[in-house]
């Protein structure tokens, strides 16, 4: 007999020994043999008295749900943020996420790329997030910590193993650690907002090299790509990480499968909202993610900013997505529609395409001919290009911010030790 499922029986024995003994004595006097008891199943015997309140309810039903809190800026939301929140959720039953205010980010790190509204949409769209607190402080003050414990019923405060220091050099989570209510998770290697900003900034450096070249001599083969290569993603994709992000479930036999495809580069609030609208049209949302080569052909040589596996994880982390095709074809063919039993193909009104790329055929010609294609009004006009333009327009501020963050990240990696988990 499983202990977890029957331990409440023995609680009844300890709490009411005389009553339980009387019941057993009565059973013996009535001539109920051991074989008869086993015939009706001893494990079912106490249920005859559960309605009388003799035995206490199962412990698991009364177990308090553990609420954990994790905060962050979540600027240029990426799969590293998503994986951190996935790990945090695994430490409790309910995950509450604090999104740091614009003012606090400016004071402690420099100007954010995304607005508070955009960052809230991204965090709320993650499958592991249960509640969101807007305008959270950058540092865990005593007042805010008491608010978390008393008003929001938080049991533990979570942060990664990388240090989070205030401008004065003190630990932003010192009070939580002192209170004994702090837990640590493993940082996701290979990506950071600083790294992504660096990838974008290096494209402007490449353009400067080419624009300033007078043409009197050949451009060195590595000169135009030197900056770009220094910010190549260091992420090493593994099957385990994909499984951790995946729902692990396919559509039901009669499910209405909706398909939407795209680059989903620099996953932003516009992506979240169009995926939400697409999911509302069916039971199962399948997302096709184009290869790096296709994205580069359609958008230009500096795209994608994030490579295929990085983009796939960001999309998989979205609560509205059920499954992804990693490396989806540009054209939605009849074979793709049949293979995945697609009922509807949708596309947003806000989309990006390089004007200089070859026209080619309509990638949605087949679903249109089949009468299963629909255009969706994009709820937001934000695009990957508009996000990169914000950074390029404020080039000096982000270059200065990145230089400081790069030094702190180098120090982290120089002193890095193995941390189990994740």
TrEMBL record:
Region (Disordered): 207-234
GO biological process per UniProt: phosphatidylethanolamine biosynthetic process
Pathway: Lipid metabolism; Phospholipid metabolism; phosphatidylethanolamine biosynthesis; phosphatidylethanolamine from ethanolamine: step 2/3
Top enzyme category: transferase
Record's compositionally biased regions (Polar residues): 224-234
Entry-linked PANTHER family: ETHANOLAMINE-PHOSPHATE CYTIDYLYLTRANSFERASE (PTHR45780:SF5)
Protein's UniProt name: Ethanolamine-phosphate cytidylyltransferase
Native organism: Linum trigynum
Upper taxonomic lineage: Eukaryota, Viridiplantae, Streptophyta, Embryophyta, Tracheophyta
